[in-house]
Amino acid sequence: MFMKKFLTISLCLFLMLSTTIYSQPKGYLAGKGVGQYHRDTLLKPIPNLALTELHRGMTFGFLAKNGYFSSTEGLAQIDKMANLGIKWVSLVVILMQETPFSTRVYSDYTYTASDGELEMAIDEFHKRDIRVMLYTDLEMHDSNWRGLINFPKGKQQIQGITTDYWTPWFESYTAAMVNYARLCQRKGVELLGLGAEMDGTVNENDQWLKLISTVRKVYAGPLLYEVHGDINFDSLPTWYSKLDLIGYSFYGGVANKLNATAEEMKSFLQPRVEKMKRLSDATGKPLIFSESGALSRKGATMSASSWQKSGEYDGDEQAKFLEAVLSAFWNEKWWRGLYWWKWDEQQYRPQLHSDPKGDQTFTIDGKPAANTMKKWYSRKDR
Does the bond joining 342 to the residue before it have cis omega, within 30 degrees of 0? Predict the structure, then answer.
């Protein structure tokens, strides 16, 4: 009888302990939705190199298929980038939601790199003394743009019925950010990008503050978000001040005519230099061009990113764009560099291959802009 009672009590204790250990994922407290994340203990400090170094950067892997980063071809690109003096890479991880009106963010087996291959790529970059920004990029499966994400507020048009779309969307997005924040913490990633160009979300101040606070519980490094388009300085989101750096998507022209001289382009850019300084001053944060690039085509200095159109290949125009941007911003101490958009072209767009002299994509490998980049990125004055 004693042995039977002992075994019964032991089994109950085992089941209770098993439930406590295995019923909840690490960092999760039971509750509504995805719940609340507690602070991971003993977070190893991440050096603040992202705040002190000039980001001699490149974007890598936009819309790369699952498995690319760990492939022979993908790994071979890392040495090529190192040879140009690139010291920071924006490693793109693709997240998906069905449409701009969906509230569920998810990993896609076609477009989302596995955590394992991301970790392999990070290790390879670090072996070559290249810092990493993990750049989370949310795409729509219906091929719309992430800037269209927006939801109505519940108005009770029918008395007693309200529908909250923002909370489930942010809960889903936060769960994704926590996953990648933990990956960054494990691998010592120097910078985490929390998103880009999601214009319709930025006024959800309390939701963004909660997301940032949650991510900081599991990642000790600096955080960035990429601002896009026109800036209303009279109503800047207050959550920007809780970031460590401000990213900006910097495209547009650097000249108002063909064959502009270097001095003319620098003068043309001066108002944009002042605007970017104002953004840095208003947020109290250093500013990085987390995207900046130009097509390799005639007229790119006037219209850098019109990828929907066809044109005439001109690698020199692309190089002039890069030269103009670096020349205009290099000595601005609030400016922390740029990530060129982009190293690799993972999609074939026929309109960018209409000229047999060369492709008109944003890539620079084997084009004059590669020499321009190496010249500037090799400088020791910043």
Answer: yes
Rounded to two decimals, the pTM is: 0.89
Distance CA 196, CA 245 (A): 13
Q: How far apart are CA 299 and CA 306, in angstroms?
A: 10
Distance CA 50, CA 53 (A): 6
Is 260 in contact with 268 (CB distance < 8 Å)? yes
Q: 273-318: per-residue pLDDT in tens? A: 999 999 999 999 999 999 999 999 999 999 998 888 889 999 999 9
In a 10 Å sphere around its CB, with 0-12 CB exposed, 13-18 middle and 19+ buried, how is residue 229 labelled? exposed
Provide the β-strand partners of residue 297.
313
| DSSP, residue by residue, 317-335 | HHHHHHHHHHHHHTT-TTE
Dist. CA 83–CA 378, nearest whole Å: 10
Question: From CA 356, how far away is CA 302, in angstroms rounded?
Answer: 23
User: Is the distance from CB of 184 to CB of 192 less than 8 angstroms?
Assistant: yes
Which residues of the chain are modeled with pLDDT < 50?
1-34
Torsion of CA 115, 118, 123, 126, to 10 degrees: -130
Q: Give, to the nearest 10 degrees, the angle between helix 115-127 and helix 166-187.
A: 40
Q: Tell me the C-alpha distance between 223 and 63, whole Å.
A: 22
Render the burial of 142-162: b for 16+ CB within 10 Å, e for the rest.
Answer: eeeebeebbbeeeeeeeeeee
Distance CA 292, CA 299 (A): 16
Closest CA relative to residue 94, chosen from 55, 57, 58, 60:
60
Look at the chain and count its residues. 382
pLDDT at 36: 61
Residues 316, 289: contact at Cβ < 8 Å? no
Q: Which residues contact 152 (CB under 8 A, 6 or more apart)?
A: 165
pLDDT, tens digit (0-9, with 9 covering 90-100), for 206-224:
999 999 999 999 999 999 9
Contact 349, 360 (CB under 8 A): no
The secondary element (H helix, E strand) that includes residue 21 is helix 2-22
Q: What pLDDT does residue 109 have?
A: 96
Q: Which residues pair with 191 in a beta bridge?
A: 133
- Which pLDDT value is given to residue 307? 86
**Is there a contact between 220 and 259 (Cβ–Cβ < 8 Å)?**
no
